[in-house]
Write a structure and sequence with these properties.
Layout: E1 10-13, E2 20-27, E3 30-35, E4 40-48, E5 50-54, E6 57-61, E7 66-69, E8 75-79, E9 85-92, H1 94-101, E10 113-114, H2 117-128, H3 133-149, H4 160-172, H5 180-187, H6 191-202, H7 206-223, H8 228-234, H9 240-251, H10 255-261, E11 262-264
Parallel strand pairs: 1-11
Antiparallel strand pairs: 1-2, 2-9, 3-8, 4-7, 4-9, 5-6, 5-8, 7-10
Helix pairs in contact: 1-3, 2-3, 4-5, 4-6, 4-7, 5-6, 8-9
Length: 271
């Protein structure tokens, strides 16, 4: 399959897994504007230098290291040399890590770069996994490796079950107007405590979580050929411009550029 979807680079989407979008990509220069998404971004640089600003510092992803970006942290992405960079990345739903850790606050890896052997092995397994037990094993190993690398657990306990009830309700009501008052009734917890616990459990606020799930659906529709204007209406945005603003803030590119860069790989061996 031709990988060169755009003269400024390409993105190949691997077959979808539950809660985990995996890509392989190449960029010769600037890749992404500053943005933040509510998934973990975890992956490996295959060639070149993947440079990015993260928590006020410049980090360099090199072959042999792992990139671990925490949910909802602002970052960008560009080549650190004229040769460009190629990488594989998994965008992972924090709820999958939560399920493996039993409701702890999400693990955080300082600096965004690691070279710990256990984590390297776990990330490689995730990038190659298929559905079923293989994926479950890879997720468990990754969660344990992240937890071990992130240091002592936070002292504050969270009500994970209440936060998860709110999260499940958001999935059922993506096209509906929601408020913290509504989620308070669903979760059985006061809105401000729920909001704090939701952030600790899933890495972002309930509102941002709702917006990102709408954008996930927008990506699916765009891959099937739905126009941008039709996609915006179908996913609960006021219009195409409204969707584009949120898309760029979440993914660092416009919906049109994302679609032009992206191809879908049906056979994992093609990656």
């Amino acid at each position: 399959m031709d990988r060169h979807a755009d003269s400024s680079g390409w993105i190949r989407l691997a077959p979808e897994l539950r809660g985990c979008e995996r890509i392989e990509a190449y960029f010769p220069g600037n890749a992404y504007e500053p943005h933040r998404h509510d998934t973990y971004a975890i992956g490996r640089t295959l060639a070149g230098v993947q440079q990015f600003r993260y928590r006020g510092e410049t980090a360099n992803g090199l072959p042999g290291t792992v990139i671990v970006l925490h949910p909802d942290e602002l970052h960008d992405g560009h080549a650190g040399t004229e040769a460009g960079f190629r990488y594989r990345m998994a965008y992972l739903d924090p709820a999958l890590i939560q399920a493996a850790l039993g409701g702890k606050p999400l693990p955080f890896v300082p600096g965004g770069i690691a070279n710990e052997p256990r984590l390297l092995r776990a990330v490689d397994r995730l990038l190659q996994a298929t559905e079923g037990l293989e994926l479950d094993d890879a997720l468990y190993d990754l969660a344990q490796a992240l937890d071990a690398l992130s240091g002592p657990p936070a002292a504050r306990l969270i009500d994970y079950r209440a936060a998860d009830r709110a999260r499940s309700f958001i999935h059922e009501a993506l096209e509906e107007p929601l408020s913290l008052e509504t989620l308070e009734g669903v979760a059985g917890r006061d809105r401000w405590s729920l909001s704090r616990d939701f952030r600790l459990a899933f890495g972002t606020s309930p509102y941002r979580y709702l917006v990102l799930r709408r954008l996930d659906r927008a990506k699916t529709l765009m891959r099937t050929g739905t126009t941008l204007a039709e996609t915006a209406v179908a996913t609960g945005f006021a219009d195409q411009a409204h969707m584009t603003r949120h898309f760029r803030k979440a993914f660092g590119v416009t919906p049109g550029r994302w679609r032009s860069l992206t191809t879908i790989v049906q056979d994992p061996a093609e990656r």
